[in-house]
Design brief:
The chain has 304 residues and is of the alpha+beta class. Helices cover 21% and strands 35% of the residues. The strands form three sheets. It has an eight-stranded mixed β-sheet. A seven-stranded mixed β-sheet has the order 1-3-4-5-6-17-8. A hairpin with a 2-residue loop joins strand 11 and strand 12. Helix 3 packs across helix 4. The longest helix is centred in the middle third of the chain and has 19 residues. The protein is elongated and about 70 Å long.
Length: 304
């Protein structure tokens, strides 16, 4: 077999790149894939990153080709150095995501191709002369970010290149809407539905006071971008006033959200929490959520 070649992404690579992206997505979250248009659009801008994407001054995509196959790809970003850029991103650069085919008997040499691609990525980051170099796995699909534990082959490439995990580990959980608990009896408590910070908000109110709320985002799958993410939503926020912990209000709010999600045709609900923290008050396992992956967020280039 011929030696791998690293080069800039070409539009003719779009189908192979999308297949490679979807293989990595499928290992993290069930029933989700992205379209060719989603991937191509993501290479030009990240519409979901409305805070950080305007700070990007330059972006480039590289691929590693083995024979006639694209076996690895990486998307790189350089952030501006102006005062409008957030401090953590100012004059920074990152490998926004890096994917490659694991070794296989029918296609030897993919690890070599991945390491050659990483070498080219580091050379590009050096040319940008960034203050700090980050890495991530933020593919353009719901629930895929950081470096998921399902990608040991990607983690190995990052670590060989000198990237180190310096941030938190996030737990990604998923529940079937049908498995969410029924609403317990809470006399005098009513639900009010409004637009919240991270989606549709359901607020529990009694005697004119807000007791708590939950928000669900049902806009994870844009029809023009995703080919197979319908039926998926996530918990954007959950807040219970301290005096009402343990009263069943958490389950009551989830039940209100579940009724709405069924009307929306949503059958799965995702949630996140930081490993080691009881971010959602311990209700997730008993509410039908189960862990689907853990992902390590916050990677920085610290060679040696």
């Amino acid at each position: 077999m011929s030696a791998p070649v690293v080069r800039p992404f070409r539009r003719a690579d779009r189908d192979q790149l999308t297949d490679l992206v979807n293989q990595h997505v499928a290992a993290v979250v069930p029933g989700v894939s992205v379209s060719v248009n989603t991937v191509l659009g993501h290479l030009e801008r990240r519409p979901g990153e409305f805070l950080t994407d305007p700070w990007v001054a330059e972006r480039t995509t590289l691929v590693a080709e083995l024979g006639a196959s694209v076996v690895a790809a990486a998307h790189l970003l350089r952030y501006g150095a102006g005062a409008e850029v957030g401090e953590g991103y100012r004059d920074a650069a990152e490998i926004n995501w890096f994917v490659h085919r694991p070794p296989a008997s029918f296609q030897p040499g993919t690890e070599i191709a991945a390491d050659l691609l990483m070498h080219a990525c580091l050379a590009q980051l050096a040319r940008w002369n960034a203050r700090v170099r980050y890495a991530d796995g933020a593919l353009p699909a719901p629930l895929v970010h950081g470096v998921p534990h399902n990608w040991p082959h990607v983690r190995a490439v990052y670590e060989r290149a000198g990237f180190r995990h310096v941030g938190d580990t996030e737990v990604v959980l998923l529940a079937r809407v049908a498995d969410l608990p029924a609403a317990p009896a809470l006399p005098g408590v009513t639900a009010v539905r409004t637009l919240g910070e991270c989606g549709t908000r359901f607020t529990a109110r009694a005697d004119g006071r807000a007791l708590g709320f939950v928000e669900v985002d049902t806009a994870l799958a844009r029809p023009e971008r995703h080919t197979r993410a319908a039926g998926l939503a996530d918990v954007g926020n959950l807040h219970i006033e301290p005096a009402h912990y343990g009263t069943g209000l958490e389950h009551w709010l989830l039940a209100q959200a579940a009724d709405w999600l069924r009307l929306c045709g949503v059958d799965r609900l995702a949630a996140y929490e930081t490993a080691g923290e009881d971010a959602l008050h311990g209700l997730l396992p008993e509410a039908g959520f189960r862990e689907v992956t853990r992902t390590d967020r916050g990677w920085e280039h610290r060679p040696g």
